[in-house]
Amino acid sequence: MTVRLDGVLVHPVKSMRGRRVHAATVEPWGLRGDRRWMVVRPDGECLTAREDAGLLALTADTPDTDAGLDAALRLRADGHDDLHVEVPATAPEPVTVHGRPLTASAAGEEAHRWLRAALGRDDVRLVHVDEPRPLSPRHGRPGEATAFADGYPLTLATRASLRRLQDWVTATALESGAEPTALQMERFRPNLVLDGDLEPFEEDDWGHVTVGAVTLRVPKPVDRCVMTTIDPESRERGPEPIRTLARHRKWDGATWFAVQLVPESVGEVRVGDEVLPAPRAAGGGPAGDGA
C-alpha cells in the first residue's frame, strides 16, 4: 500500500482562508503558524465563519506561508491596503474558543481598525495566542495542548473519503433533481491531506499515522459543523455536506468527516512524504466528545 501526503494547509488566522504550502513544521500545538491568531468579539469569544462568512474573504500570511514576508502576519482584503502586524507585547487577557478558555495578547488598534473595516463591523479585535489550551481529558494526555483550533492540534482528511462523500452528495441531488454540490477539500479545513491506496473512511480506524519522520496520534474523528456548508469561494450556504453526512456518517448525535491528530514527535512534513498509518488498538472504536 502506498500513501502519500498530497497537501498541507496552514490557517494563520482562525476562520480566514487556508494557505497551501509545500512543507510545514509540526510542533506540539500543531503546524507552526497554524491558528495562532484569532478574531474575537467584545466578550473575548472567537468570531468564526459560522457567524460571519466574510472572514473567508480575508487572506492571512505568515513567514511559514510566504517565505519573503518580513512581518509576523500580513492581512489582505479586496479594496483595502495590506496590513503588516507583529506579535503583540500587550498583557495577556482571557479569551475563549467556543467557550473553552485560554489566554491571548491583543494586537494594536491599527489591526483592529483594519479588521473592522474589512468585515464591515465595529465589534471585533485581533489577538495572538499566549498560553495554549489543554486538550479535552477524554482524548488528550497531560501536557498536550492546542492554540486556537476548535479541538485538537491538527486535522487530517483523505482524497478517498472526499471522493466517496462527493458520490453520495451527487446521488442525493439526483434523487431530488437538484444540481449536485461540488465539494472542495477546503470546506473541511484540514491541515494534512492524504492520497494513494486508501479505502474511504479507513482513517476512522487508525490509532497513529507517521508522515515522513513525524508520528501523530489519532484520538478521534472530527464532528462537523455548519461551517462545512459554506462554499469557501462564493461564501454561499447550502445543506451539503451535512445533509448527506447525516444519512451515511452519523453517530453519537453528530456527523463525521476527517480525523483529529495530536503530535507525538515534531519535525518537518512535505508534500510527497510517505505516510504509514497504524490501526487503533482493539476495543478503541471511534467516539466523539464534541471538541
TrEMBL record:
Short name of one Pfam family: MOSC
Question: Which InterPro entries does the entry mention?
Answer: MoCF_Sase_C, MOCOS_middle, Pyrv_Knase-like_insert_dom_sf
What SUPFAM superfamilies does this protein map onto? Answer: MOSC N-terminal domain-like (SSF141673), PK beta-barrel domain-like (SSF50800)
- Any one GO molecular-function label of the UniProt entry: catalytic activity
Instruction: Report which superkingdom the organism of origin falls in.
Output: Bacteria
Give every MOSC domain span.
Answer: 124-278
Mind telling me what this protein is named? MOSC domain-containing protein
The organism is Phycicoccus flavus
